[in-house]
Amino acid sequence: MEDRIKQLETVVSRLSRRQVKKTAAMITPYQISSCVERDDIRDEIFRYLFCTQGTIVKVLVTLNKKIKDGASFAIKISNDLGGSSSSYIINNKNLIINPNISIDSGDKLLVYISPLGTEIISEVWLSLLFLPSTKDSEIKNYLINSLEKEDVSEE
Question: Which element (helix H / strand E) includes 72?
């Protein structure tokens, strides 16, 4: 019986020395997008309510044409405590920015655009990348052996 216990202890010892390999899934940003078509676009073009904390990491704005005098583009975040805003000038047909705006649960996003001259904007495409905080994300860790044995992508 003692030989069997020693043999089991040896096996357990060897197994505990094995390197455990893990992998974790990457949290990708959510894309939030909209298109506005009107005869004359000025002022507010988009509203959005966030239900979780995170960061707006990238914004892309595309106009129907290049505006000669440019256009004013503003992002406003508001909540019960106040808010913040950031303004930009669009001098081309496209504007890409990386504002890294922190968002709390319950924050409201408002987006404004207005031409600086007399030209008319008739179409605006807007796309934002929102990266949720890990606090509200579900993170699953798997042993490499588990991944090889079963398809965890369906969970």
Answer: strand 71-79
